[in-house]
Amino acid sequence: MQFFGGSDISPSPPAPTASGNNAHMMYVFNRNGVCLLYREWNRPLHTLNAQQDHKLMFGLLFSLKSLTAKMDPTSMDKGNLGVPQLPGQGCSFHSFRTNTYKLSFMETPSGIKFEIMQFQFLGRGFGENIRFVQIILITHPKTGDLRESLKYIYNLYVEYVVKNPIYTPGAPIRCELFNTSLDQYVRSISYLLFKPRPSGTGDLVLQKAYSLMLISIIKALISVSKSVVKNLGSRDILNII
Amino acid sequence: MAAIYSLYIINKSGGLIFYKDYGSSGRMDTNDSLRVASLWHSMHAISQQLSPTVGCLGIELLEADTFDLHCFQSLTGTKFFVVCEPGTQHMEGLLKVIYELYTDYVLKNPFYEMEMPIRCELFDINLSQATQKDRVALLGR
Amino acid sequence: MATTACFIIVSRNDIPIYEAEVGSATKREDAAQMHQFILHAALDIVQDLAWTTSAMYLKAIDRFNDLVVSVYVTAGHILCVSDFNCVSDKKNTEKMENDIYVIFFAFSVGEVHELYIKILLNPLYLPGSRIASSHFDTKVRALARKYL
Amino acid sequence: MIGVGKIKQYSNVLDKPLSKGKQEVSSSAFAFLFSELVQYNQTQVDNIAELERRLEDAGYAVGARVLELLCHRDKGNRRETRLLGILSFVHSTVWKVLFGKVADSLEKGTEHEDEYMISEKELLVNRFISIPKDMGTFNCGAFVAGIVRGVLDGAGFPAVVTAHFVPMEGQHRPRTTILIKFGEEVLRREARLAVPCDIIGSLFDFCVCSSEHGNFNDLVKAIIATPVDVKYTISLHPNSFDLGQDELS
To answer: How much is the pLDDT for A35?
Structure first.
C-alpha cells in the first residue's frame, strides 16, 4: 500500500525536512517520564497538544516495555505485568512499525560502560539520574534498523548534554551544540535512509552531492572533541557513511 | 529455524477469544494471557493516536530482543497477533491465512457466538495444518 | 366440431388445485358435475398406469361415450387431467380426430406443466395447495384457446 | 445488481423462462445463510431432535421443488418409476445441481434390504460447521436429508431419511451419511413392478438377504407376486439355503 510519497522510486531523494508526509521526530525521556527533548523535523499531523502527546508517548512506551517483558517467550520467570522494569532487566523491545510510521526505541542502561571514567568524580547518584534516558525516533515505516543511529544519538547526548556543566539533570535539554549536531546527523540519516540504492549507473549529480555531504560530516566529526571519535567503533563510522 | 511461540486472537473490544501456545517456555496462564491481550489492544489504539500522519492502522510489527510480534487487524477490529522468533519471514502471510480460516470456520459456524471465545474444533484442525504447512517449526519444548 | 374440455390439475393426494372449463361449446349446467365425475373416475386408472411408463404424457386413458380423457403426470405425481368432447359427424374419422386433439393437448399441457413449475418455485406457494394466481389462470385459458 | 448483460424485465414471473440455471452461487454466501437458518431455528426449539426436524422440513420444501424442476430441465420430462432410477437421480443429478459434484458413494444397506446410504466425505452443508460437544449427535446434514426426502416423496417413494456422522479412521472429520429407509409399499410396488427380465436380479437380491436371516416367506411372496405368465425354472441349490426338501417344493 504505497501510502505516502514513493520514497523508493522517486529519482531525487526527498529533502529530509520538507518532504511529503514521512514524519521525522525524536523524543528523549528520563526515567520518571519527563520529556527532556522533543525534536520535530517533519510532522504533518498534530493530534494532541505537546504536553499530552509526550505523556501519552511515555505511557505507551512504559506499558509496551512491561508487555514485552511479560511476553518474553524465552525466560521462565515471568514478572507480573505493570511492575516497572529496571533498565536492562528482562527483554525489551527496540522498535515497532505501523503502516504510517516506525518508532525506534532505546533505553540506555547499557550506556554505563564508557561514562564510568567521566562520572567518577561526580558521585554515583548524579550519574545515575542523567545516565538513564529513553530515546525515541519516529521515522518512515520502511526505515531499516535504527539501533546504531540511536546509539550514536545517545553518544551525542552524552557529549553535549551530560558533560555540559551548566546542564541541570532532569531539566529539558537547551544545549545549542547538541541540537545542531543532532540536526546534522538526522539529516544525514534520513538522507541515507531515503537514498535509493545507487544502482551502478546512478546519475552523476547524485554521486557528487553525496560525496559533498560526506565531507561535511567528517569535518563535523573532527570538530567534535577527539574522545567522541575515538570511542566510535570503525563499524559505527562505516554505518554512518 | 523460524518458530512461532504463540498465537492470540482478540475481538474488537480487546477480549481474548483464542490463545494457542506453540511451545514457548513457561506457558502463560489464562489470566496473564487475558491481561496481555487487553494490554495489547490498548497499545494498538494508543499507537494509532500518536501517529504523525493521517490514516494509521496501529502497530503491525513489534520487534523485541527475543521475539517479534506480528499483528494483523481486520476491518471489523478483530486482531490476530503471533509471537515468533526474531526475523521470522512471511508471518504476515500466515496471519492472512489464519484470518481466512477464522472467517471460514468460526464466523460461518452457526454455533459460534460473536465476540465469544472460539471453541470450534474445525478451526483448530485447520489451524494446526496451516501452521505446519508453512514449514514453521513448532518448538516442541 | 364443438369441443368442450374440462381441465383439472390434481395434487398427489387427489385434491384438485386448479380447474378450468375451456372450449367453445355452450356450457350445460349439469356438464360441470359430469366432467368432475369422469375425471375423478380416471384417477384410479392413472394410479397404476403411471408406474408402468416413465413418460409423462399418458395419451387417452379412458373413454366415456364421446368424451376422451387424457392425463399428463408430472415428476411429482401432479396429474393434469383433461377430457375433450369431440363431436364428429363421421364414425371412421373419429379415431383420427381424437389423435389431433390428443396431440394438441400434449402441446398445451407441456406449457401448462412449465407454468406449474414456475408457480411451484415460488417459495411462498405451499406445494399441493390451490393455485390462486390469476396470471396462471389467464395464461392457461390463453393456451387452451390457442390449441383447442 | 450488476446482471450479466441486460436483465429483461418480466411483468410476471410466469413469463420468465425457466433458466438453464447455470449461475454460480458463492459458497460463503450460502454458508452464512445456512448458518443464520440454523441459528434462527435454534432459537425456536428447545431440544436437538426438534431442531433437526425443523431443518428437515426446510429441506423437504426444497426437495419437492428440485424434483419437478430437474425432471423438467435435466431429465427432459422423463419420470423415474424405479427405485434404483430415483436413487441414481438423487445421487447424481440432484447432487450435481445442488452441490456441484456427484455424491461420493451410493450403497445398499447390508443388514436391511430397504435401506440405502448416500455418503459424502465433506458435505457442502457441514463444511464449516463444528458441532459443540454438548449437542451430541446433532447433524446439520438433516437439511440435506430433508431435501432427499422431499425428492423421494415427490416421486412417489416415501422414505424416512436421516443424516449421520460416520467416523473414518485416519481422518479428522467424520463422513456424513444420508440413510434412506424406504416405506413398505415402495418395496411391494418395486417387487410388483419387477419386470421379468431383471426378475433374476431382484430375486437374487432377495435370496442373498433372505438366506442370511432365513425369512424365506419374503422369497416365496416375491415369486408368487411376479407376473404368472413368466415361466422360469429357478434352480435353488439346497445347501446354499439349508432348507428341507419339502420347503423347496
So the answer is: 83
Q: Which segments of D82-141 does DSSP mark as H helices, in order?
A: 83-88, 95-99
Each residue of D56-114: pLDDT tens digit?
A: 999 999 999 999 888 888 877 788 888 888 999 999 989 988 888 899 999 988 888 88
- The Cα angle at residue A24 between residues A19 and A28, in degrees rounded to 5: 160
Q: What residues does each domain of chain D span? A: 27-188, 194-248
ipTM greater than cut 0.85 = no
Q: Which residues of A touch B55 (CB under 8 A)?
A: 3, 99-100
What residues does each domain of chain B span? 3-138
Task: Determine contact: A173 vs chain B, CB below 8 A.
Answer: no
| Fold of the domain built from segment(s) A24-240 | Beta-Lactamase (3.30.450)
Q: Which chains touch C (3 or more CB pairs under 8 A)?
A: D
Sorted by where each begins, the domain ranges of chain C are 3-147
Contact indicator for D123, D145 with CB cutoff of 8 Å: no
Question: Sorting pLDDT into bands at 50, 70 and 90, what band is D50?
Answer: very high
Q: Which of A17-26, A150-159, B19-28, D107-116 has the lowest mean pLDDT?
A: A17-26
- So what CATH class is D27-188? alpha beta
pTM of the predicted model as reported, rounded to 2 decimal places: 0.73
Q: Which of the four pLDDT bands, split at 50, 70 and 90, describes residue A233?
A: low
CATH of domain B3-138: 3.30.450.70
Q: Which one of B43, B53, B57, B139 makes the best mutation probe of the A interface by having the most chain A beta carbons within 10 Å?
A: B53
Distance from CA of B27 to the nearest CA of D (A): 26
Q: What is the CATH number that goes with domain C3-147?
A: 3.30.450.70
Buried b (16+ CB within 10 A) or exposed e, D74-90: bbebebbbbbebbbebb
How far apart are alpha carbons D80 and D67 in whole angstroms? 10
Question: Which residues 85-104 of A have a C-beta within 8 angstroms of B?
Answer: 91-101, 103
Cβ-based contacts of D85 with chain C (< 8 Å)? 54
Say yes or no: D140 contacts chain B, CB-CB below 8 A.
yes
> In whole angstroms, what is the distance from residue C18 CA to residue C11 CA?
9
